[in-house]
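Quick one before lunch.
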Amino acid sequence: MKKKINTQKFKYSHLSKDVASIQHSLADSLTYTIGKDPHTSTARDWFSAAAHTVRNRMMENWMETMRSYQKEDPKRVYYLSLEFLIGRLFTSSMINVGLYEPFKQAADEMGLDLDELREVESDAALGNGGLGRLAACFLDSLSTLNIPAHGYGIRYEYGMFNQQIENGYQVEHPDNWLRYGNPWEFPRAEILFCVHFGGRVVEYPDEEGKIRHHWVDTTDVMAMAYDTPIPGYATSTTNNMRLWAAKASRDFELQYFNEGNYIKAVQEKNASENLSKVLYPNDTTTNGKELRLKQQFFFVSASLQDILRRFFRNPANQVENLPDKVAIQMNDTHPAVAVAEMMRLLLDTHHLDWDQAWELTTRIFSYTNHTLLPEALETWPVEMFERLLPRHLQIIYEINHHFIRHVSHMFPGDMELLKRVSLIQEEPEKRIRMAHLATVGSHRINGVARLHTELMKSTIFADFYRICPEKIVNMTNGVTPRLWMLQANNELSSLISSKIGQGWITDLSQLRQLEQFTDDSAFQQAFRHVKRSKKAFLAERVQQLLKVELNPDSLFDVQVKRIHEYKRQLLNVLHAITRYNRIRHNRLENPVPRTIIVAGKAAPGYVTAKRIIKLINDVAEVVNNDPAVRGLLKMVFIPNYSVSTALEIIPAADLSEQISTAGTEASGTGNMKLALNGALTIGTLDGANVEMREEVGEDNFFIFGLTAAEAAELRRDGYNPWDYYHGNWELREALDMLRDGFFSPDELTRHRPLFDLLTEQGDHYLLLADYAAYIAMQENVDALYREQHAWTRKSILNVARMGKFSSDRTISEYARQIWQVEQLKT
Ligand code: 26Q
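Model of the 26Q complex:
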């Protein structure tokens, strides 16, 4: 802008949050922004008007927050994540900015059905599962705690695929979530960074004769920012989530002239914009696709340029003070190339010497590990790096050189150790180990639950733990109570607030005050009433969707999470089959009606996971249609598990299935969401289950099965699943039904591969070893459920004692122990 703005003349109307003002805005938005009159408006038009009405009421706080950050220039946290599993923002935003009640009234008075409107919004499903949802919960907590923070990620045009079940099989459909526009994002066409790929490195001596490096002849892609405001709960702090979209660079246009090949140039332009096209839908096995590495570097490069630009905007900031103003958290190894990119910027652009650049880099970065599974550890072929990021490869080699020298001084002569910790894996082909790069380049690395962190120290990071024990710390996960209680379960939240006030919403440890009502029969009754109504609502949904009738008085037994062998949905199925056999052969004394609910997506290339989905649907089909079951058992697979469906399923659960093989689930967060909504947990001593049991008390938790140590020992000593097969006739009966096609009369061999997996192929996740203990514990579950009071008592105690698992607590720990950032006063 050439002319200076006369701020005297710059006056916007302050938007208040009373009912009349909301109604006025709705009318204005519909008329002036949407361009519709109320008689021809569709639900989507009204949703858009409503979203704009809410969004407008976040703008002042957002701008004020950004202004104050710029003015005060506090130390900031940058959360780098390839995934943000946000879900819908309409209700969350209203809750956080205090608009929920007046908006409801405003809508009611106008004859608008708020429930219908909110269903119009697409989920922002920019994540696979736990890791992506954790990032979204963290953003909510960062704003709520008034911590200066920025989320950085990719604006995928297509998020997590939509799952349809056709004939019992998973079919993936693209998630075109932006089709009708996204009311929460602000495109920032002027915030544009150039990201380089390919080319080559040239060395040249500078004026002082020092060797410098130029990365030249690159192919460039532009990164354009899209900003989404993230309001905290009951605070004015509104942080920013900045997602990058790929845009072709002008180079592609110039090529039209140079090469005279218009069509080819447009094709290449298109190809470069493919970078941010789609989220990779695998959550465990890393797939070594080049496009994925490009996505990683694309968002890392743009984010670091943005971070440094902001830092240098304050003339008082000098490069050596970077760690006083910048803390960067890497969500798993997906952004780990940031370590090399930061080094490149400090060395090649800011001309620091190696030691200083390295010291700054390690003080800035920290890394969160989310898995111990070896197949999930990211590595990239050196050859691919050389082609796409030749300068970064040089830098990684140099980092490795310095690190290996350091280790060899600490542990002279231990060549095996050097091989194990090297950033480069040599066999069978040369690959870069991203977890090693992230670890060496960070001052702190953390696990996501106590057991997980201890296993990091004793297994995959054992060598690093010897080299620098103080680097590995624990940050037990948490979830935001604003989404997973207030929004998911308004009824439960109101009941709680009526007893202990609203302090628990931002200080979840206050839930402990509920303990005094555990045996209060009026409270028990109200508590049960909430659960019953949530179950009835879910039953209605399932009826509409699947045409299966659920009995809301049966025990709702819920397993919702990605489908994976280690999470052992198959163990759940073995229990379902066993229960079915007991019912139809009248082997149950005092049967408790049960509804087994499963939901979750399988990675599209994960054949076994997809077979498990088909099996669940096949078993459900048989069980739900066998008159011998007499209403004592139902089984449903709810399609397309997502944040939105989670909000409907989780509050309706009586029992939470957390049954991974001990030592495999890093933390789990669904376990926390379910317990906070009053479900009792049946689970193994895995991930955060261990700490949940510690909090709620072992009498209030159904723990079964091998411990992580026992599981490791059993495998080491030679595990033979056939021993369990032959040693337990009910297990054998259930497995034989799979083998013989009992549940697949139209194709008798369909479930053979799953039978084989659990027998001949060694049952890697020890399902057969845990089967008997699991079945026995399910009998205890039934026994307790028969005693309504005893069950409700434990359910209340679970809610009361889950306060530790708020993401506010988690974020406070990161802020103090890793980032050293302060909560701002508001
Ligand atoms: C990596 C490379 C290429 C393509 C995809 C990926 C990829 C993507 C997503 C690898 C892993 C993920 C997601 C992992 C994840 O969700 N882990 C879960 O993180 C939760 C939050 O810490 C934990 O609670 C869960 O235990 C853990 O499984």
